[in-house]
Design goal:
Layout: H1 3-13, H2 15-26, H3 31-68, H4 81-117, E1 122-125, E2 131-134, H5 136-142, H6 151-154, H7 158-168, E3 174-180, E4 186-199, E5 202-210, H8 212-247, H9 254-286, E6 294-296, H10 298-315, E7 319-324, E8 331-333, H11 335-352, E9 358-365, E10 372-378, H12 386-389, H13 401-406, H14 413-423, E11 427-433, E12 437-445
Parallel strand pairs: 7-9
Antiparallel strand pairs: 1-2, 1-5, 3-4, 4-5, 6-8, 9-10, 10-12, 11-12
Helix pairs in contact: 1-3, 2-3, 3-4, 8-9, 9-14, 10-11, 11-14
Length: 455
């Protein structure tokens, strides 16, 4: 017990004790009587003050316990009504403070949950342009471990960095448009706003809005119109010419009717295939920035594609051989799009390889890229000159235009293959030796291993 605190409390609480002392000093009371009275008063005050002091000590200990452990619910017992009233007041305050703290924590948790699950990538910057906080969309776009890095380490976009510096200098909001090239081209609009007043956990917020679909829609509309008008002009002109001939000079020529109608049917079929391939390519490009998430059994898919093309191969006295390693993991992808890739590549091998040869399809873990499957489709054709290999996946590019059109090609097959492979974050390799044949190898990412949910 602190003696100075007790003495001060006693003298504050006892004017009678002070009066006894004064009277004794003045000689109005017998010193012995005054001493006895003073001692009795002191004892009475100690008896009265001790419960208060002990109660205050217990309250202090209880408050310390609640400060260390928010779940603590101590009890304070005291014979003093004043202490009991004080403890009840402390508990009412503690309950109110705890309720406010819980409400604030709930608001913070809700805000963090909303921030984490927003579809748009969000970066919070401190006043030194370092990244203070991100959400899951930002981590998925730019990679993990962004916090504490300078913004330039995550986004090397001069216009964006200049705008962020301007906002941090207090020059107001900024809106910046920029492109990201890897792994596929994507277009973003960044809105940068200051946090006012400036907070310790951030000074500005960058919100990235993906406008890839809008940009691609604009470009695809223009490309489709240009490509369709260019490629459809020739077969359409042929159809118009044959129709005019059949309605004019060859009106009564039965032999000409049959011959011209066969050509018209062929040109109409070519136009239909061209439009179908253009629409397919447009659809693939529109969704190229969104990675497929299905698990695909590549060996099984190739077997089904090969069965569908077996009749065409038999017509040229060719065989399709599939060599798949045992226990291959599934690939990550879209089964319909991958079927289109393999169908285009095997169909090209049937069309352009030498009759009576075999087409070999080999599936194995990729030796060039980790966690990747390699699907190699090899033919025994005439091969492709080296100067043409790099341009094979361009739209409407043909090594032999006359032969390609004669075989019903639209010039879009390998462009479709390239964009589907890009959509899957894969890789297309083309190797060719003149006189020996060509090999088209598709590298596809392996699907991540999934752990079964606990029963």
């Amino acid at each position: 017990m602190n003696p100075r605190w007790l003495l001060a409390a006693l003298f504050r609480a006892s004017p009678a004790l002070i009066a006894f002392v004064v009277l004794a000093w003045a000689g109005d009371l017998d010193p012995g009587v005054a001493a006895v009275a003073a001692i009795l008063a002191l004892l009475a005050l100690v008896l009265l003050a001790a419960p208060i002091y002990i109660g205050l000590a217990r309250i202090r200990n209880a408050i310390d316990a609640m400060a260390e452990d928010d779940a603590a619910r101590p009890e304070v017992e005291s014979a003093s009504p004043a202490i009991r009233d004080l403890w009840l007041a402390v508990m009412r305050w503690a309950r109110a403070a705890r309720a406010k703290a819980q409400a604030r924590e709930m608001e913070i948790d809700t805000a963090q949950l909303v921030l984490r699950n927003l579809p748009d990538p969000i970066l919070v910057l401190d006043d030194a342009r370092r990244i203070a906080r991100t959400n899951e969309a930002a981590d998925a776009l730019l990679g993990p471990n962004l916090v504490e890095r300078d913004l330039a380490g995550a986004l090397r976009q001069p216009a964006l960095l200049a705008a962020a510096d301007a906002v941090l200098r207090g020059e107001g909001d900024r809106l910046v448009e920029f492109d990201l090239a890897n792994p596929v081209e994507r277009h973003f609009i960044a809105r940068i706003v200051p946090l006012l007043p400036v907070r310790a956990d951030g000074s500005a917020v960058i919100i990235l809005h993906d406008v890839t679909v809008l940009k691609r829609s604009e470009r695809l509309r223009a490309d489709f119109a240009a490509n369709a008008s260019h490629e459809l002009r020739t077969p359409l002109a042929s159809l118009i010419g044959f129709i005019e001939t059949l309605r004019g000079p060859a009106r009564d020529d039965i032999d000409a009717h049959d011959r011209f109608l066969a050509i018209m049917a062929e040109q109409s079929g070519r136009m239909a295939r061209l439009v179908e391939d253009l629409l397919s390519l447009a659809k693939i490009e529109m969704n190229e920035h969104q990675t497929p998430t299905d698990r695909v059994d590549v060996a099984d898919l190739l077997s089904r594609v090969a069965r569908g093309l077996d009749q065409r191969a038999t017509g040229r006295d060719m065989t399709i051989r599939i060599d798949a390693a045992a226990d291959l993991p599934p690939a990550l992808g879209d089964p319909d799009e991958l079927a289109q890739v393999f169908q285009n590549l095997i169909d090209n091998a049937i069309k352009y390889a030498r009759a009576g040869t075999a087409i070999t399809v080999k599936v194995s873990p990729s030796a060039k890229r980790p966690a990747t499957l390699a699907v190699a489709i090899a033919d025994q054709g005439e091969g492709i000159p080296r100067e043409h290999v790099a341009r094979l996946t361009e739209r409407f590019y043909r090594v032999d235009t006359a032969r390609s059109r004669e075989l019903g090609g639209t010039g879009l097959g390998l462009a479709i293959v390239k964009h589907i492979v890009n959509h899957h974050r894969g890789l297309l390799e083309i190797d060719s030796d003149l006189g020996k044949g060509s090999t088209f190898t598709v590298h596809l990412p392996v699907a991540p291993v999934t752990t079964p949910a606990p029963a």
